[in-house]
C-alpha cells in the first residue's frame, strides 16, 4: 500500500500538523486557492457533512499554497469547521504530484490540481481522488468513506 509522505505543515493558527496527527481516517484535500468560487463551494460542502464525517471518526484537512492569514480569513468568512494547512512552497503538493501545469481560460500556469487523499493512522493511502470536481467532492467523498 502506498504511503502518504512525511510532512509537517502549519495550520491557520500556526500549530504544526504532521503524520503523527493522523488518527483514525484522515481526509487531506488539496485545492488551488482560498476565497475562489470553486474552492469556496468545495469547503462549504465539506463543512455541511462534517458532523457525519466525525461520526465516522474522519478528520479533514484542506491544503493550499495560501498563507496562514489567508486561511484564517477563509475560515472566518465561511465559518469552516476544519483546519487548513499552509504549503506555501508547494513541497508537499509537488511530492504528491498535485502541483502541475494547468490550463484555465486559455492560460497555462503552475498550480495545485484539486486532489484528495484518504489516509489511515499509519499514513497508508486508502484512496487517491484525482481531478476532483468541486461541486460533487463532498458527496463522492462521503460515499467512499461510508464504504470503508
Automatic annotation (TrEMBL):
The record's active-site residues are 39
The EC designation for this entry is: 1.11.1.24
Every Thioredoxin domain range: 1-148
Which enzyme class, named as a word? oxidoreductase
Could you list this entry's UniProt keywords, alphabetically sorted. Antioxidant, Disulfide bond, Oxidoreductase, Peroxidase, Redox-active center
Single GO MF descriptor? thioredoxin peroxidase activity
Its Gene Ontology cellular component terms are: cytoplasm
* SUPFAM superfamilies in UniProt: Thioredoxin-like (SSF52833)
Q: Does the keyword Disulfide bond apply?
A: yes
- A GO BP annotation: cellular response to oxidative stress
Domain of life assignment: Bacteria
InterPro entries to which the protein is assigned, alphabetical: AhpC/TSA, Peroxiredoxin_AhpC-typ, Peroxiredoxin_BCP/PrxQ, Thioredoxin-like_sf, Thioredoxin_domain
Catalytic reaction equation(s): a hydroperoxide + [thioredoxin]-dithiol = an alcohol + [thioredoxin]-disulfide + H2O
Q: What does this protein do?
A: Thiol-specific peroxidase that catalyzes the reduction of hydrogen peroxide and organic hydroperoxides to water and alcohols, respectively. Plays a role in cell protection against oxidative stress by detoxifying peroxides and as sensor of hydrogen peroxide-mediated signaling events.
Q: How does it assemble?
A: Monomer.
Q: Which family does it belong to?
A: Belongs to the peroxiredoxin family. BCP/PrxQ subfamily.
Question: What is the protein name given in its UniProt record?
Answer: thioredoxin-dependent peroxiredoxin
Q: Which organism is it from?
A: Lacicoccus alkaliphilus DSM 16010
Lineage of source species: Bacteria, Bacillati, Bacillota, Bacilli, Bacillales
Amino acid at each position: 500500500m502506498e504511503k502518504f509522505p512525511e510532512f509537517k505543515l502549519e495550520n491557520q493558527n500556526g500549530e504544526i500538523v504532521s503524520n503523527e496527527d493522523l488518527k483514525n481516517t484522515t481526509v487531506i484535500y488539496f485545492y488551488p486557492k482560498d476565497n475562489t468560487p470553486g474552492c469556496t463551494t468545495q469547503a462549504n460542502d465539506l463543512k455541511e457533512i462534517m458532523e457525519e464525517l466525525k461520526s465516522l471518526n474522519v478528520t479533514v484537512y484542506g491544503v493550499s499554497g495560501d498563507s496562514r492569514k489567508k486561511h484564517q480569513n477563509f475560515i472566518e468568512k465561511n465559518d469552516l469547521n476544519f483546519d487548513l494547512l499552509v504549503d506555501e512552497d508547494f513541497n508537499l503538493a509537488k511530492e504528491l504530484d498535485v502541483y502541475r501545469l494547468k490550463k484555465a481560460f486559455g492560460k497555462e500556469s503552475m498550480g495545485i490540481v484539486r486532489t484528495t487523499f484518504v489516509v489511515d493512522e499509519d499514513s497508508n493511502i486508502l484512496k487517491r481522488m484525482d481531478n476532483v470536481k468541486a461541486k460533487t467532492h463532498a458527496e463522492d467523498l462521503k460515499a467512499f468513506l461510508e464504504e470503508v
